[in-house]
Amino acid sequence: MTDLRADIGEQQPEAAFGDYVQLLKPRVMSLVVFTALVGLLVAPSGLHPVEALASIIFIALGAGASGALNMWWDADIDRVMRRTARRPVPAGRVAPREAMALGLGLSLIAVLMLGLAANWLAAGLLAFTIFFYAVIYTMWLKRLTPQNIVIGGAAGAFPPMIGWVVATGHVGIEALLMFALIFIWTPPHFWALALFVKTDYAKARVPMLTVTHGHRATRVQILAYTLALVPVAIAAGFTSIGGPVYLALALVLNAVFVAGALRLWRRTEETAQLDGYRAEKRFFRFSLIYLFAHFAAFLIEATPWASALAGRFGFWGA
C-alpha cells in the first residue's frame, strides 16, 4: 500500500494551491466551524472576541488536519470510488507524504495553539477528535465493520462540545446533548447517501451497511436511528440553550425527518431504482438542513429577544 501511494504521488505535475485547500475538506470543515462556533456562542461565558476567533481558527485547522490525514490514508480506496477519484492524492496532484506531513503539522499547531488561546481541556478534546477520526475511524473502523459510521460519527460530534469547553472550561449537559444530536444524526445521514452510491463502496471493499447487509436492513436502521434522534433533539429544547423558538422548530424538523425515514423504510429496491433513488437523495439533502437548522435555532435562542420571549412564557431554558 505504501508503494502504491508513492507511485500515485509521482505520476502527476506539481500541485496547485487549491489542491492543498481541498486536502483540508473545506465543506466538512465548514460544518465543524459552524457547530463549534454555536457551542462557543451559546455557552454561559464572557470570552473575549479575539480569544473566541482564535479558538475557532484553531478548531478549523484541527478539522483540516483530520481531512488531510484521511485523504493520505484512504488514497487507495478513493481511487476506486467515482465520487472521490479526483481528490488530490488519488489523482496524483499531491504526494501522499505531503498530505501526511500537512495533516500532522496542522494537528500539532492546532492543538498547541488552542491550548494557549483557550484552555488545555479544549485542546485535549481537539487532539482526541483528530486521533479518533484519523486513526480509530479512518485507519481501523472504516475498513473493518459496517458500524464504521456509527462509532466513527463521534469525531464529527465533538466540535460543539469543544466550542463549549473553550468558553466554559468544562463539559455540561448542553454540550453532551449537542454531541448526541450530531452523533445519532450521522448514521441516517450517511446511510441515505450509501443507498444511492452502493456500487462505489462495494468496488472499494468498504464494509458499509448497504454492502454487508443490503438496502432493506439499511432502511430499517435509518428509521431506527431517526426515531432515536427525536427525543435527543427535543430534550435539548429544555436546557439553557433551548427555548420556545428552538422547540417549535425542532418539532417540525423532526416530524419531517421521521416522515422521510418512514418513506425510505416502506420503499423497495425496485421502486428506488425506477425513480433514480429520488426519495433517498431528498432525505440526504434534508438531513443537512435538519442539522444546520437545529444549531441555527440554538444561536437564535442565545439572542436577547429570544431569551425575553422564553422568560415571558416561563420556559425552562430561559
Q: Can you describe this structure?
A:
The chain has 318 residues and is an all-alpha fold. It folds into two domains: 171 residues, UbiA prenyltransferase (Tetracycline Repressor, domain 2, Orthogonal Bundle), CATH 1.10.357.140; 146 residues, no CATH class. 79% of the residues lie in helices and 0% in strands. It is built from 17 helices and no strands. Helix 6 packs antiparallel against helix 7, helix 9 packs antiparallel against helix 10 and helix 10 runs antiparallel to helix 16. The chain starts with a helix and ends in a 6-residue tail after the last helix. The N terminus is likely disordered.
Question: What features would you highlight for this structure?
Answer:
Tetracycline Repressor, domain 2, mainly alpha, 2 domains, 318 residues
